[in-house]
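Q: I'm writing up a methods section and want to include an example of the input and output format. Could you take the sequence below and give the corresponding predicted structure tokens, formatted cleanly so I can copy it straight into the document?
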Amino acid sequence: MPTTMTRGTAWRESRPRRPGRLHLAVLNPQPNHDNWATDMNVFPTVPRRLVHLIGHISRSPHVDSWLEAVGREAGMMVRVPITIEHDRADLTGDNDDAVYRAREYRREEFHSHRMRRLRARDVRVVSSFLDAHPDQRP
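A: Here is the clean output for your methods example:
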């Protein structure tokens, strides 16, 4: 089964914040492969408040892509100095097991008109919140 480990600065120290207040942000840690070079966020980390605000974590099994898209479009993606060791068969050669082989990508569904409309709704909700609470912007 694929594994993930954090290395480097503690999560708590890396969150964007002001004294007594956390920003509403999608954190983008650096994985052990070239996703930052391609400007992707394969391990988006979000505050619970975002889930409460939009009412879900994702409308798709592609949770990382959903949160990346919402964070990017709402202007709330923040790179953080944390390294994630992403141990996955197609990236490192490790963990080529039944779970990895049984994964199912649903790219067509993710890029469908319906899913684009649902992501746009999440972006509108987040953007409206950030417009009303500019102190929460990262």
